[in-house]
Amino acid sequence: MEELIRLSSQLHLIFIGLLGVLIAFNLYLLNSDKTFLKLSKRLELIAPQYYIVLSAIFFTGIIIMAIRQFHFSLSVAVMIIVWIGIVALGIRGHKIYKSMERTEISQKAYKQYAIKKYTLDLLGLCATSLLFYMGH
Ligand code: HEM
């Protein structure tokens, strides 16, 4: 059983690292000098991977929780809240993206939102991990 927890924890951590890499890549693209058309194509290409990795984080987290008979702690509650927050910001971003007009102002507003969203995602990721390791 301990071996299964260790393996799931390792996978949980690998996917958290992967999400960090994807956030960094999104931020790099958003801060580059690409035309909006090129930028949006690249962002659309990464988006599915982002949500696959997020699901993998949830899935591995649920496995660890199930093995521990759904024992709850403050850091796990924070992880779930941060995870829901990341998904909610993503849904809002998608709505803004879909309702965006073809004007420069509208595109700039979307870019600003996306930069804020990914920065918040990164902060959430770091703060949650820090909270966990400070408590252990
Ligand atoms: C983006 C959000 C998340 C982050 C940044 C995060 C981060 C972490 C980290 C750094 C660990 C420590 C791993 C280790 O060293 O073994 C951990 C463990 C864990 N995570 Fe997450 N996690 C997130 C989402 C979730 C979700 C959604 C769940 C549940 C559905 C979850 C459940 C757990 C559990 C049960 C543990 C083991 C806790 C313990 O050993 O006391 N996590 N997580």
Biggest sheet details: none
Rg over CA atoms? 17 Å
Helix content: over 70%
Shape: elongated
Figure out the total of helices: 4
Low-confidence stretches: none
Overall number of structural domains? 1
Strand percentage lies at under 5%
Hetero groups? protoporphyrin IX containing FE
Average pLDDT taken over every residue: 96
Which structural traits does this protein have?
single chain, binds protoporphyrin IX containing FE, 136 residues, 86% helix, elongated, mainly alpha, 4 helices
Structure commentary:
It is a single chain. This protein is mainly alpha-helical and 136 residues long. It has one domain. Helix content is 86%, strand content 0%. α1 packs antiparallel against α2 (36-67), α1 packs antiparallel against α4 and α3 (74-98) runs antiparallel to α4. The protein starts with a helix and ends with a helix. Protoporphyrin IX containing FE is lined by residues 9, 12-13, 16, 57-58, 61-62, 64-65, 73, 76, 79-80, 82-83, 125, 128-129, 132.
Outline:
This protein is mainly alpha-helical and 136 residues long. The chain has one domain. It is built from four helices and no strands.
